[in-house]
Structures are given as C-alpha cells and as structure tokens.
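Protein of interest.
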Amino acid sequence: MESFTGKVAVVTGGASGMGRELVRQLTAEGCHVAMCDLSVEEMLETKRLALADAPEGTVVTTHVCDVSDESSQLAFRDAVVIQHQTDHVNLLFNNAGIGGGGSMITDPREVWERTFNVCWGGVYLGVRTFLPLVIAAADGHVVNTSSVNGFWASIGPDRPHTAYSAAKFAVKGFSEALITDLRVNAPHVKVSVVMPGHIGTSIVENSMRHGAHELDMETAEMVQLMSDMFRDQAPMSAAEAATEILDGVRSGRWRILVGDDARKLDEAVRANPEIAYESLTLGDLTSSREGSPFNPTG
C-alpha cells in the first residue's frame, strides 16, 4: 500500500502518543480515519490537529471504546460503517495499550488482568471485529503494536514486568501466525507487528487513568512526574515513531522495529538469548561498548 490517500483507517488509542501521531500523519495524506479511546477531550484535540493539516474533505471521527470489551468494539465498528459510509476498512492499527501488573506476586489481580486485557485483548478483539471489513477492501493491512517487551520480557533486573510482557509476546506471536492465515485465506491483506523501544508518549499517565489503579494525591503527583520524564527524555518522539511505522507499512514489512534502541536490543537478544535476564539493564543490552555482554565483538 504505497499511498494512504482516499483509504479508510481505524486507529485505537488515538487520543495521545503514537495513536495521535498516526492519525495526524494519515490524515495529512488524505486518509479518512476513525479513532477510538477513552479520553473524549484528547480525541477531540487529535481531531482538531489532524484536520488542520488534512486536505479538504478528509473525514475524521472519534469514538469512545474500551478495546478490552467486545461489545464496545462491536459498537465502534458499527459506528465506523455508518459515519464513514463504508463497507470496508483499508488499515487497522491496533495501537491502544497501558502498563501495570508487573508482578504476579505483589500486584493485585485486577491490575494485572486489566493490563493484559487491554494490551492483548484489545488487539485480538480489534482483529476479530474489524477483519471482515479489512478483507472486504481491495487492499488491506492490519498493524498490531507489540513492543520490545514482546521479545525481551524485562525492563531491568529489579522490576517485574509480567502482564505487559505476556501481552506483548502474545501480540507478536498472533501477528506472525496471521501471516500464514492471511496468505491462505485473504492474500490481499497484509499484517505487520510493530515493536517500539522507548518512545516519548504518555503511557505512564494513561496507565494510571485507564488501568485498575486507585491513587492518592501524593502518588498521583509522583506518577505525573514520572510520566513527564518518560515522555520528555525518550530518544524518539511519538511523531518520529509514527513515521517509522507508516514507512514500514508502505514498504510492506511484516516486522517493524521502531527506534535505534529497539533495533539494538533485538540484535543483542538474538545474539545471546541465554543471558538476556542475567541482571542486565536495557542500557547493558543495547550498549555497543567493547566488553558489553551482548556485543558480538566483546
């Protein structure tokens, strides 16, 4: 799919971060977009930004949807068909995600399951719900967002990261399995799995807002500070990440690593997977210095 002009795209998690930037860049090329999220005001801001740079006649719609709930996804689909007056969808970006539920031992079950159900269930239900519309298109592409935590289940030696990692591994495996399923049953539809590294988004803040957390004021202020640092100190912006994703879709790549840190980490884990969890940090894994545990020349 070399051009997005005139196509119809669905983007989950469109209120902020990579979702917002995907909406903006797609509409700038004249792609009609239906986005969903739980944040109405932020979605409306995404729509305003998108239409400011979009060609006249570009349609952008917003929909409140909990991607982990099938009835909510089905309502979203029905609204897309009506509001976009369409019988097909060309592009499906299952992008929505939150964090939380790091430990099976110390974190509440409801927090763990909320994270897993959004990050994995949102992708599964998104494909299950919208795939018939994608197949109905002359050409279609499903884009599922996994993570570097879809091939390395860690954020460091002292911080459990089970729910998010389990979900992202599931997204990666599911997307890879869809390659054959689509080739056999819908060969005009392609699939890509996106694996970003550290991207400047508000996922930390959104995880608190839309997860199963209850925070006092002091904790909420600390989370906001952490969220700002995570976003502002990231090596890649959400806009840059969206550009890499869309470039990968245009070129038909099924495996889209986003960011130099993601590419280095992928290479490192593949080079020596046996020590991937031996008290190493992301910096250790991606370091190119001589003597690094994952440096092939070290």
